[in-house]
């Protein structure tokens, strides 16, 4: 059994053929998919999709660092009211992205801290996106006393030193198709050393299709290629990777147990 812990099913590349995307995922052994929100509209779409595919699709609510500048008091209030109504299993994706910097560093930090506070207030795990922002992400998590929060560093692409720092704060690490890309050697070394009880796998579809599907539209069924690469790197069976990653995901996102 596989869980794709991070996909964007509301994106048009996937939503236009969602029934078939889900069918192909099931055939590939993917039993559950977390559809991650990147803004208000996409979070509500993810929730709608989770209702269309109960027991298969689960939704999170969040504001991506790219859109951090759109956060104002009204949006904060709306996020809280959606969370009071329920139907979400996590907060995010949130975090910091200094590679693209579509929002200022200050706005990104404010939106990140707001979503960390939601994670604590509503006792939901947080999905963290961090790109070229490792030290600042760690600084914020430490200052927010992240040991009280739980969550995952999604689409991890750093080295073992950074991975270890997140593990020490109690976070899970999620690996995407980037681990199959030719230049990702430091990342592959980190995969080898990551403890078995602390990782999951994800597609981040429709982006980042893994080798051998690179360049195509990514979709949840391709999570098997990421599992295969983790198995190869760790020198363990494919089934063992599936078992650990699913078990770990269910330990963090409790509703996945149902
Ligand atoms: Zn992301
Ligand atoms: Zn994402």
TrEMBL record:
GO molecular function: DNA nuclease activity; hydrolase activity, acting on ester bonds; metal ion binding
Classification via Gene3D superfamilies: Metal-dependent hydrolases (3.20.20.140)
InterPro entries the UniProt entry points to: DNase_TatD-rel_CS, Metal_Hydrolase, TatD-like, TatD/YcfH-like
Domain of life: Bacteria
GO cellular component terms given for this protein: cytosol
Residues bound to a divalent metal cation 1: 6, 8, 93, 204
Keywords associated with the record: Hydrolase, Metal-binding
Residues that, per the record, bind a divalent metal cation 2: 129, 154
Family of this protein: Belongs to the metallo-dependent hydrolases superfamily. TatD-type hydrolase family.
Protein name: Putative deoxyribonuclease YcfH
Source organism per UniProt: Dissulfuribacter thermophilus
């Amino acid at each position: 059994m596989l869980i794709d812990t991070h996909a964007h099913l509301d994106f048009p590349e996937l939503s236009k053929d969602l029934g078939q995307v889900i069918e192909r995922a099931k055939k590939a052994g993917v039993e559950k998919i977390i559809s991650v929100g990147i803004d208000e509209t996409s979070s509500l779409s993810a929730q709608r999709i989770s209702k269309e595919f109960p027991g298969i699709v689960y939704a999170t609510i969040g504001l991506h660092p790219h859109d951090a500048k759109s956060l104002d008091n009204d949006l904060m209030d709306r996020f809280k009211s959606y969370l009071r109504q329920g139907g979400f299993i996590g907060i995010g994706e949130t975090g910091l992205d200094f590679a693209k910097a579509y929002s200022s560093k200050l706005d990104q930090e404010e939106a990140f801290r707001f979503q960390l506070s939601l994670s604590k207030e509503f006792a939901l795990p947080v999905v963290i996106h961090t790109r070229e922002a490792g030290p600042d992400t760690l600084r914020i998590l430490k200052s927010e006393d992240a040991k009280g929060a739980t969550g995952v560093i999604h689409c991890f692409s750093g080295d073992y030193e950074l991975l270890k720092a997140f593990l020490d704060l109690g976070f899970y690490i999620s690996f995407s198709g980037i681990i199959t890309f030719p230049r990702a050697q430091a990342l592959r070394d980190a995969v080898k050393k990551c403890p078995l009880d602390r990782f999951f796998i994800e597609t981040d579809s429709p982006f980042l299709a893994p080798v051998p599907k690179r360049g195509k539209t990514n979709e949840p069924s391709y999570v098997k290629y990421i599992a295969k690469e983790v198995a190869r790197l760790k020198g363990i069976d494919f089934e063992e990777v599936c078992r650990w990653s699913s078990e770990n995901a269910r330990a963090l996102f409790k509703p996945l147990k149902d």
